[in-house]
Amino acid sequence: MSPTPRSLISRPGPTALWRAVLAAGVLCAIGLLPWLARTDPALTVLKARSADRDPTPEALAAVRDRLGLDAGPLRLLGRWLGDLAHGDAGHSWISGSAVLPSVVQALGVSLLLMAVALTAALGTAALVCARTLWRGAAGRPTGSRTGGVAATLASLPEFLTASVLATVVGVQLGWLPALGWYGPQWLVLPALALGVPAGALLGRLLGDALPGAFAEPWALAASARGLPGRRIARQALRRSFPGLLPNLGLFVVGLTGGSVAVEQIFDIPGLGRLTLQAAIAQDLPVLQAGTLALLLLAAVAGGAARGTARLLLGPVLRDGALASPHRPGPPARSPLPFAYGAVLLGVVVAGLPRDPLALDTAARLRPPSWAHPFGTDALGRDLLARVGHGALTTLALALAVSAAALLTGVVLGLVPRVSGAAVDTVNAVPPVLAGLLVAGVAGSGPYTPALAVAAVAWAPLAAHAGALLTQERATAHLAATRALGAGPLYLLRHELLPAVLPPVTRHALLRLPGVALALASLGFLGLGAQPPSPEWGLLLAENLPYAERAPWAVLAPAAVLALLGALAVSAAGGVRLPGRRPRRGRPARRRSRQQPRHPSRHPSRQPSRQPEPAAPAHGTAAPGSAR
Amino acid sequence: MRSVRPRRWAACLLLTPLLTGTLSGCFAPADSSDPKADSTGGKRLRIALAFPPSESFSPYGADATLLSRLGVTEGLTKLDGNGAPAPALAESWTQEDARTWQFTLRDARFQDGTPLTGAAAATALTRAAQASPAPAALSGVSLTAEASGERRVRVTTATPDPALPLRLAGPSLAVLSPKAYGKQGAADPVGHATGPFTLTKVDGSTSAALDRFDDYWGGRAQAPGIDARFIADGTARANALRTGEEDVAEALPFAQAASLAKGTGREVPTARTTSLYLNTASGPFADPELRAAARAAIDTSVLAENVYEGYADPGQGIFGPALTWAAGKRQQPTGRASAAQPHGATVRLATYDNRPELPEVAQVLQQQLEKAGFKVTLTVRESSRVEGDALAGKFDAFIGARNTMLDTGDPVSVLASDYTCDGTYNMARLCDKNVDKAVAAADALADQDKRRDAAMAAEARILGTDAVVPLVHQRNILGVSTTVSGVLLDPYERTVVATGTRR
């Protein structure tokens, strides 16, 4: 009946080729890194071997000679690739030991940590959307109201959760070992530190999609037929999960290669630390092997995510027979965004008249008082002033980067076949390496850190947008619209984008605090904000060593960041222009034929008047409904 | 359909023990040793070290210090508390002529059982001299060694080197058994050194296990062994000490000192001086009067008391109070310019963040300099990404923490490398005839006392140029559990454990 929409089932050949080209590109870029960054690898290697060693010309020449650096990047890269074909990933430039065993060992550690962290994340996600599920199962679906807590959790930087867990649970309470990697009980704290923020983000995304699933016709029909709520909830989960899977796949890779802070704090010999050290020291063989491992993992995880999505959605994708997952209606207007906004604004306004740079070392680490409502930092500076003054630069830059990432993400999400491999590749590149590469290409100008963060921040958004689009393209109403003669541009403007933009925008906003932190985390490469700037990420980093003695010094920036997350998410509930309620206020004539989900958009349930049969309790989400 | 699921779950449950069995391979091996007392009553020491071995315990780089700190390797000489060369593997030595020294070895054995002979010592020194890059203690020195008897070794340098016995105390010139040296220039210290402890197992950059060496010439160590862990994060090291997982934790951050239990934080004065280097070749500080203005503007006691929380002494000179001999010899800086008004001169100040206190120091200095009328912009990067630029003169001022004893323990060598025209680490880009002359004069002296006098005279000359402003002399915090006794507090950062260390 309808033309077969593009399905997830893409031809494997070209995709694999494209993926290989991207991976080769990344490896080549790493091979060229020192020459791009114009930083002598002999110097960084020498310094990594011995921090106190003077970089005398003789010592540098000896290192250069030993490593054969004079052969030039291309020859080095060629040699490395040639050896790789024989299963030899070379020798570390720093230690001289074989790379492969150390990378494999670190990868094993990181994979185990990731697996447990992912379990913690799924647990957190379950807790976050438990209420939505409960209410949906009970037949009272709500708008997505999981905002505040989840967004707050999601905006917690993992280095903060890690050091708080290590200090409080590990040291002060002594319940679990605070550091090391010797057995299962050593896994708990790091996995929680990594898993809780990730799980909050996933839970928030899931909570975003669930109400739409509950409002679909099959759910109504199933409920009307008297099926138990539990089963409906299970199917709703199954219906919402595929949109999330690509992001889950990204987390798998991100947690494996990017949990540097947690590995540092808990002293875990994982891949994140290995690649970070290699990136700083420009130890190219280790960096190449580590990144290659992550790229392979990304390909596997991405493939698994796509495969699972296909398994869960089944033939509906092929047949273009999906009911459209849309939220039941605008979320109840809540005063929360205004409250969050007012508090944030109040803090900024109260901080602005104060001096954020005035040092008074005699008044260091003072607890909050009338004179210093947020206390003082390690150099006796007023924290309220610093938080207030840092707001503008932090927010402006983070918003700009998020907007750019959103735009790129959605545009690339439209062409999943091109962007799928790119997303996996970009996500697998360790963040510091991305920073170094971007800095190498773009120079260390004032906008380099923003570029570097934007260069990776689009990936999860593109993955999300791509997954939603694939589903949206497989919906029955789209097929009908197309049958009525709508062109691709019309479809894009009036059907696809309006369906995809709101959830992806909310996702982008959810990641806003993370972007702010990422911007500050490149500072040690000489990119981005430098002390004494009161940029929020920098505030957190510089006060972290004092977290135990002066918790307020960390609490203030962490709290405003969490507030920002909560504000962004709660306000995004209404990413609708005033006076225009998308979909609901559409001219009925265009919709009249494919309006099966009309009743579903009402929060209260009504007896189904739809032509379709109810969804079977198991099997595809909305099988064959268009026929 | 329904009956399938429970069975699937059951299968998963059956798989669990299998999986956990495989997973256990993913963890780092736990300390295999029995923590309980052994027959002699001692317990193994558990030490958290800050720097992992970066070159798989190659004795020629930074790992040499690690080996020396763990009591694995020894050189012909060592430094005594006063910084003078003292007998170690060499019982005594004599200078035969300006370039030749004769060392008489003591009756000792390597950990692999072979006896220490003149030939073995000569091999060790020759291999060190041939290492590439050359050990820092030998930079600029060309050395040959030959056995001159069963227990004698003769060392000859290309040019006269009065500081040779000091040099040979450097950890990278440790003497290893001939069996330690492979074909490709690498040396393997595992089981081939002479110290009271011998490496038995190295687990990458995570941990190392050591056993007591029973035939140690200085007597058997009281602790039966050492379990060393390399924990890069300072807070994590402090946590390890606080939870009782470790007995000794080195280089604790100042920020963590306050949270340690009473009596566990030991202060070790070090030869490390944090200084402000002013670029004398270009920029505003090419003007000696502005350098004087900067020096006058800086209050170092604030840094010592507040940033270093009292774990440092205000800057007195290039050589600090940890070098006990320096105190009585200090001379007043001469030839200082008088301070001029900066009139808003812009200063680019740089430092690195590998030591977390340095960015704080930089921010305090920024404020002090701005109060005096300078305008200051700050750059903070990772050290290998800022040092090169600083040496190339891309900044007007640089803050660095410098070990003033380097690897040689000789005060003149740091002056030569840091403040002379040909210096390899001349952050201030100083090229001053008088300074060069004073350093050269000191370098020519063989007598230790006179050499030190001359070094202090050269220091006064250097301070007179205001090219460097010594900020603080840092103390390290060594975390030592109250149950442990006999830990060495070494200002030269070369030793931690010895035969008398026990818990």
UniProtKB/TrEMBL annotation, chain A:
UniProt biased composition (Basic residues): 578-604
Low complexity composition bias: residue spans: 605-627
Pfam families linked: BPD_transp_1
Location of the protein in the cell: Cell membrane
Keywords attached to this entry: Cell membrane, Membrane, Transmembrane, Transmembrane helix, Transport
Region spans: Disordered: 576-627
InterPro entries cross-referenced by the UniProt entry: BP-dependent_transpt_permease, MetI-like, MetI-like_sf
Positions of the ABC transmembrane type-1 domain: 387-573
One Gene Ontology term from the biological process aspect of the record: transmembrane transport
Cited SUPFAM superfamilies: MetI-like
Membrane topology annotation: Multi-pass membrane protein
A single GO cellular-component term on record: plasma membrane
Keyword Transmembrane helix appears in the UniProt entry: yes
Keyword Ribosomal protein appears in the UniProt entry: no
Chain segments annotated as transmembrane: 16-37, 103-128, 149-175, 187-206, 244-266, 286-313, 334-352, 391-414, 426-444, 450-469, 508-530, 550-575
Record family assignment: Belongs to the binding-protein-dependent transport system permease family.
PANTHER family according to UniProt: D,D-DIPEPTIDE TRANSPORT SYSTEM PERMEASE PROTEIN DDPC-RELATED (PTHR43386:SF1), OLIGOPEPTIDE TRANSPORT SYSTEM PERMEASE PROTEIN APPC (PTHR43386)
Protein name: ABC transporter permease subunit
Species: Streptomyces corynorhini
From TrEMBL, chain B:
Keyword check for Protein transport: no
Signal peptide: 1-28
Signal keyword on record: yes
InterPro entries in alphabetical order: Peptide/Ni-bd, SBP_5, SBP_5_dom
Chain ranges of the Solute-binding protein family domain: 85-425
Superkingdom as given in the UniProt entry: Bacteria
GO biological process: peptide transport
GO CC, alphabetical: ATP-binding cassette (ABC) transporter complex; periplasmic space
Keywords carried by this UniProt record: Signal
Protein name listed in UniProt: ABC transporter substrate-binding protein
Species for this entry: Streptomyces corynorhini
